[in-house]
Amino acid sequence: MRIREIQITPVAVPDPPLLNAAGLHAPYALRIIVEIVSDGGLSGWGEIPGSDATLAALKQAADHLIGLDPWALNAIDGVLEGLAKPDERGAAPWDQRTGVHVKSAIEVACYDLMGVSVGRPVVDLLGGAARERVPFSAYLFYKYEGAGGEFGFESDDSASGWIAARQKAALDPEGIVTQAQAMIEQYGFQSIKLKGGVFEPQQEVDAILALRMAFGPDLPLRLDPNAIWRVETAITAGKQLEGALEYFEDPVRGQDNMAAVARAVDIPLATNMCTTSFADLPGSVSHQSEAIILSDHHFWGGFRASLDLARFCKIFGRGMSMHSNSHLGISLAAMTHLAAAVPNLTYDCDSHYPWQDGHDLLVQPLSFEAGAIAVPSGAGLGVEVDRERLAQLHQQYLQCGLTERDDEIEMQKVQPGWTFQATRW
Predict the structure, then answer these.
(1) Which of 82, 87, 96, 394 has the smallest number of Cβ neighbours within 10 A?
(2) Which residues are catalytic?
(3) What is the sign of the dihedral through the CA atoms of 151, 157, 158 and 164?
(4) pTM for the whole thing?
(5) Is residue 201 helix, strand or coil?
């Protein structure tokens, strides 16, 4: 089997006005869909966050992969590493490296193609399932009114439940609790994460305490200020949240600062911002900067790298969870197969999917039951892409005018003069 062609399609999916430390989500989230077609006409699919730089890097890589065997992942890695340019994660909450994104998209599509060719699910190619169902966490955001896109998700004033809740503003603890109740009722999630770093820290502490009051002592809660707090601020907030949080994600920036908070606060610290590459792992051990690492196959370079990270976590006593981004069903399926193959996945995974639900490109979207997704049993990723829907989302990309994610610019539209600060409180 050989790679005959690689189709690269940028798409845009409606995204609500969600707030975070870097600003405000644009009306559309950008994704790139990769289809690798074999000489026998089989297809494998991958999906990654979209940007002009990543799109250009993918197109360059595609020209060098034609004719290679999709099973020959080491050879493919060699080609991609030869093309990669030095890049950095950046200070924003999302990872801005193009090399790991390209590697991830290609590898996931190859695994899908490999699985389809032999009639086995991807999880089997990753070592087999350690679990049949993968649990996910409710992912809450402070947000302005609206549901993203040109017309929004739903405009029916009579809408109820999650359909109504994801249109409404949530700017205070009461609004966050209402959002959580609607999301959990719809999807059955059994843990909650709040994206913080938006308001004064005490307001976000109060939101966590309100969630604890609303849902009782047994539902795990997490808070992620996206590394925007000072050490003393994180310690003050953390002291109030001892006993209330399952884990405290990236309250401060950098391994030194994370270690200082970890020593002072009796809450496990998790990271997706201070330990984000294999080069960071020695520092993680020497500083003891976190207790939990949030993997992400998009940002660590694919499935195999993520499994290597899982082995590190097992050896060095780290818990492991999974970070997400504003994704569609291809990424959700890939996350599910990977999470199922990790024996030491110790926490529920993140998922933004409820914010994009109803705008997927799969013929049959994956569904949550009691907050978990059953590992697809079909060949490869076990999903089928709706090509007509893919074309519609591509047309939406062409029409929306966005080519990069820039939450600062979006925030300035509602708060003129607002600027991102790596450390704000």
Answers:
(1) 82
(2) 195, 323
(3) positive
(4) 0.96
(5) helix
